[in-house]
Amino acid sequence: MATTGQGTAEDPWVLTTAPGTSEYRMHRDDTADPPLLVCQVGSTRLTYLARAVDDLHAMLRDAGDWVPLGAADEQKTAADGTVEAWGRAQDNPAGGWYGQRKGYRGRFGMYLPPLLEALGLVELEHNARNNRVRAL
After folding, report:
1. Do the Cβ atoms of 67 and 84 come closer than 8 Å?
2. Mean pLDDT in residue range 62-75
3. 8 Å CB contact between 22 and 16
């Protein structure tokens, strides 16, 4: 899917969820320690470790095939084998949650894959439900 923006606070990436139902903005904040991805969805602000881009791409490359997104809120259990489950697993490179804002750490599988697609790193399905992603 097409995106606009340079990924800065002044010119954020304008992205759409995989099903194409919601638009959101994301930018990289390198002034934060550690650097963050700031995701603005309406009035809700989520933050994820910026290293998630490289880490998720590496995981998908290692998987070698399609991986379901499995987006879920923080309070809900993520389905095994999904991007969402990996984004909160203790054995991922971050050692747990990539999401940094308590209560808003979920939805990794919803908001990160479209960014990786915009950056040309992955192929992402755009069905109404049950979308998957794979590394290019």
Report:
1. no
2. 96
3. yes
